[in-house]
Amino acid sequence: MADDFPRVGQVIDYYYLWKWQDLRGETEGRKKRPSCVVVVAIDRDGKHHLFILPITSKEPAADRQAVLIPETEVRRAKLDTDMPLWVMVDEVNYDILETSYTLEDRAARGQFSPAFSKQIVLAFRSMRDAQALRISKRA
């Protein structure tokens, strides 16, 4: 595990489980996708509780909440630059680093800037405060 992993704003490759898949009883994400670490909380036992947001190239529906990733941030996070990308902020996976069976590569592929990471965190908190998050627990 890299010394600086996990941190807010890091982009990782993760088997993200969409909420619609979770509701159908699925327990595994169908494919690795770029995802963004939005919250890292460390408990008394030293375990890292992670909240992970999906990144998608599919334009979000009107009833969904997402943040469009600027081109400079796409390059910084080492993502594909040939298409628009969004961080979905109304849906999240909850996982525990030390017991995760989905976090295979425990290193970041890239990192969003502090300013853009803050924008993502604020949008996520807004959804949390409105009790509008779709949460899939992986732990």
Identify the notable features of this structure and list them briefly.
139 residues; alpha+beta; 8-stranded mixed beta sheet; 8 strands; 32% strand; Growth inhibitor PemK
Overview of the structural elements:
It comes from Acetobacter senegalensis. This is Growth inhibitor PemK. The chain has three helices and eight strands; from the N terminus they run βαβββαβββαβ. It has one domain. With 139 residues, the chain is α+β, with helices and mostly antiparallel strands. Strands 1, 2, 3, 4, 5, 6, 7 and 8 form an eight-stranded mixed β-sheet that branches. The chain starts with 9 loop residues before the first strand and ends with a strand. The radius of gyration is 14 Å and the shape is globular.
Order of helices and strands: EHEEEHEEEHE
Main sheet properties: 8 strands, mixed
Binned, the helix content reads 10-25%
**Global outline:** globular
End-to-end CA span = 19 Å
- Overall pLDDT score: 94
What portion of the residues fall into strands of 2 or more residues? 25-35%
User: What's the domain count?
Assistant: 1
